[in-house]
Amino acid sequence: IAGITQAPTSQILAAGRRMTLRCTQDMRHNAMYWYRQDLGLGLRLIHYSNTAGTTGKGEVPDGYSVSRANTDDFPLTLASAVPSQTSVYFCASSDSSGGDTGELFFGEGSRLTVL
Amino acid sequence: GQNIDQPTEMTATEGAIVQINCTYQTSGFNGLFWYQQHAGEAPTFLSYNVLDGLEEKGRFSSFLSRSKGYSYLLLKELQMKDSASYLCAVADSNYQLIWGAGTKLIIKP
Q1: Using the beta-carbon criterion (under 8 Å), do A90 and B45 form an inter-chain contact?
Q2: Cα separation of A104 and A45, whole Å?
Q3: Does the beta carbon of A41 lie under 8 angstroms from any beta carbon of chain B?
Q4: What is the pLDDT of residue A81?
Q5: CA B90, CA B92: separation in Å to the nearest integer?
Q6: What is the pLDDT of residue B75?
Q7: Could you tell me the sign of the dihedral formed by the alpha carbons of B25, B2, A76, A6, in that order?
Q8: B residues 46-85 near A, CB within 8 Å?
Q9: Which of A15, A29, B97, B108 is 20 to 30 A removed from B12 (C-alpha atoms)?
Q10: B94 C-beta neighbours (distance < 10 Å), count
């Protein structure tokens, strides 16, 4: 049972480089999310998608973009990485159906360091 | 603004009981979640409260008072494996989750 798979697990990146974090789920969940987690702060929502073909901005979307071409995949792209984007990134999914917040299932996280 | 407050760190003894509090101020309320996160791992779901009262699930219980903007997570018969961070999150009027910074629970033998 895979659940949610994120790649890479860890990455060191030079500032200014482009980076895509991959996220794939096999639970056929409608909703998917990208969060960042920084020490001393709660999880912060970057972008979300309620269903395939739609995306929305979260609390901290600047510098990030997402796409949802199909149900399973939800990649997060940093167009030009900056050191403040150093963080642990979690992808999550839920079986929510608009107007509801279901239990979130998280991937194992991607630790990104921007130098 | 929206805010979730929980203690940064707590220490308890193996076999004892610990209560982790969470207070919240959000624009609307559509439920409160507790998640457990072991160091270096992903958060995992523990409980969900949308009505006032106590929800019990094995050694873990979660309480909610909507009028007070308050919840607690109660862990009984503590085990060393319960050492983890416990995250409180509230779904606001748009069903977006607002997360607390988490409470790191240290269990001592």
Answers
A1: no
A2: 13
A3: yes
A4: 97
A5: 6
A6: 98
A7: negative
A8: 48
A9: B97
A10: 10
Q: How far apart are CA A88 and CA A46, in angstroms?
A: 12
Q: Are A89 and A74 in contact (CB under 8 A)?
A: no
Residue of A nearest to B6 (CA): A42
Distances (CA, A) of B57 to A42, A79, A104, B70, B98: 25, 44, 18, 19, 23
- DSSP classification of residue B68: T
Q: What is the C-alpha to C-alpha distance for residues A77 and A106, in angstroms, rounded to an integer?
A: 18
Q: Which of B35, B95, B102 sits opposite A101 (nearest CB)?
A: B95
Token code pair at residue B94? 């748009």
The pLDDT tens digits of the residues spanning B47-98 come to: 999 999 999 999 999 999 999 999 999 999 999 999 999 999 999 998 889 9
Q: Which of A108, A109, A48 is nearest to A74 (CA)?
A: A48
Residue B11 corresponds to which tokens in the numbers above?
């220490």
Flag if B42 and A45 touch (Cβ within 8 Å): no
User: Are the Cβ atoms of A90 and B43 closer than 8 angstroms?
Assistant: yes
Facing A106 at nearest CB: one of B30, B43, B96 = B43
Predicted confidence pLDDT, tens digits, chain A (115 residues): 679 999 999 999 999 999 999 999 999 999 999 999 999 898 999 999 999 999 999 999 999 999 999 999 999 999 999 999 999 999 999 987 555 667 899 999 999 999 9
Q: Tell me the backbone φ, ψ of residue B82, rounded to 5 degrees.
A: -80, -5
